[in-house]
Sequence to fold (313 residues):
Amino acid sequence: MRKKRILGWAVVIGGAVAATVWAPLPQEDALPAPGAGPVATPDGSPKDDRTFLAQLPAREPIGRRRGELFPSQSWAPPPKPAAAAVEAAPPAPVPPPMPYRVAGRVVHDGVAQVVLAKGDRVLTVRQGDTLDDGYRVEAIGPKGVTLVYLPLNMPQQLAGNFALDTAKPAAAQPPQQAAADNRPARLRLEGPARTRAGDPFSVALKVTSDQAVRSAPVQLSFDAALLEPVDVRRGGFFADGIFSFRINPSGSIFIGAAGKGAVPADAEFFVVTFKPVRAGAAELKLSSVLLQGAAGRAIAHDQPAAFRTSIVQ
Fold:
């Protein structure tokens, strides 16, 4: 009897569960078809489909495409960057300022030579000679001298208004003239043997030669501690010629003079005026002199004695 009662309750409970599972679900309002017109709301008022759609949540729009979906890829090495702009080429090297200038020319034993001045120095050079500061005498011509700056192998021209007449043979001379040409020219410095400090005095170079003298580059040295040069002027021999000079306060004077080519007889080449600075024994001497004839040939000369004067207070 008890079993039947339990079985009955089980049947009742199973039927209730089945009824619950198979009960129809409540229907939702179906979405209206496009263009179907207004739909009734639960309270019976008409409902516009556009208003209904407007109430749906908004979707973000799809943005623009930012690249290829399937880009191609190359495994080749990247190209080299473009070459940088070529820098401006550095300026070409140039030789230093020319330290030499032409002071004269001579022809010795048929070989052309040139007198060059550098500062207060005078030197005689010929073709092929190597000079200080890296220069070489490349050529000597009628219009000047060509020097080559050896570090750059760069030629430079020094102008000279002279013509070397080396092609013409010397005409035969009478025996008396030949003997006279062999006698050296005589040079001497003349001035006061005694002077007072502060009182200017003058010293002249006089020349006597049996040959015509055309030009004479000269270098005079003096004691800068005792003497101060105040004036340099041409002598009577070069009154109508070319005359130039340069004073180095440290103790030298370079003088270049040229004329028509006359025979000097105790003629003044130049006159230098000094002012004695203080008392003492002052000395002047010709450290370099070159007498040149009408054809540019060197004229032999004796070595003049140094000039000395006593300066007193």
Notes: Residues 127 and 137 are 5 Å apart (CA to CA). The chain has a mean pLDDT of 76. The domain at 101-159 is CATH 2.30.30 (SH3 type barrels.). The radius of gyration is 59 Å.
